[in-house]
Design brief:
This protein has helices at 7-16, 30-39, 54-64, 78-86, 99-108, 119-127, 138-141, 143-151, 172-176, 192-196, 200-221, and strands at 18-22, 44-48, 69-73, 92-93, 112-113, 115-116, 132-135, 160-163, 184-186. By secondary structure, it is an alpha/beta fold. It has a four-stranded parallel sheet, with helices on both faces. A three-stranded parallel sheet has the order 6-7-8.
Length: 222
């Protein structure tokens, strides 16, 4: 089954191994956050549409930090799909599965990963042509043990997951060790509080720690 996300973008996400998931309240913080993440080796981010600053933050990052692969999350409506495309989002993500949102993303050419938490969600995503999906909320749903069981009947279809929700530096390795997982989403890298405090050094440190875990795990697997 062919992915709905271009190989170049998938390759960037898998290569990084961790997607920084951010809530940004002020546009002025966007570029410093992105640069701090890149300095730590994380060059993929998902800016959530939870604040009025999100689209402005995306535009700033796309203009001033071109080395960052910047997408938008928490896309809940078809109208938001069009808004994020106009703001030059490189990919889109939603917490759940809304067929209208997925259809609009396909219509306008936005690489898109809907969220799934059950076999029914996953079958709905597959029906819409989605092979790469978000597993959310990962830890509250049962973690890697649950994901392995849920995904088992669909293994022959080549489905890949990006788990998000409750992941940390302490547990990310258990997810990345699975061939089901292409990357994980990490909101701990740059929390809302750390961003508001403008603690860029901590963000760089968190990113470097996560990338070190990715590197060590992959060297062990190879």
């Amino acid at each position: 089954m062919k992915s709905q996300i271009p190989a170049e973008i998938l390759g960037r996400i898998e290569s990084c191994g961790v997607v920084a998931v951010l809530v940004i309240d002020e546009v002025k913080h966007a570029v410093p956050v992105a640069r701090a993440l890149v300095a730590g080796g994380v060059d993929v981010m998902e800016l959530t549409l939870r604040t009025p600053a999100a689209l402005g933050a995306l535009r700033s990052i796309r203009a001033e930090v071109p080395e960052m692969l910047a997408g938008i999350g928490t896309i809940l409506t078809p109208a938001q799909v069009r808004e994020v495309v106009e703001a030059h989002a490189q990919f889109g993500v939603s917490p759940g599965l809304n067929p209208r949102v997925v259809g609009t993303a396909k219509e306008v050419g936005l690489p898109f990963a809907p969220g799934v938490a059950t076999p029914s969600d996953l079958e709905g995503a597959l029906e819409l042509g989605c092979r790469d999906v978000k597993f959310f909320p990962a830890e509250p749903s049962g973690g890697m043990k649950y994901l392995t069981s849920m995904a088992a009947p669909y293994g022959h279809l080549g489905v890949r997951f990006i788990p998000l929700g409750g992941l940390t530096a302490a547990n990310m390795g258990s997810y990345l060790a699975s061939p089901l997982v292409s990357a994980i989403g990490g909101s701990w890298l740059a929390t809302r509080q750390i961003i508001q405090a403008e603690d860029w050094e901590t963000i760089t440190g968190n990113a470097a720690e996560a990338r070190k875990i990715v590197g060590e795990l992959r060297s062990t697997k190879s």
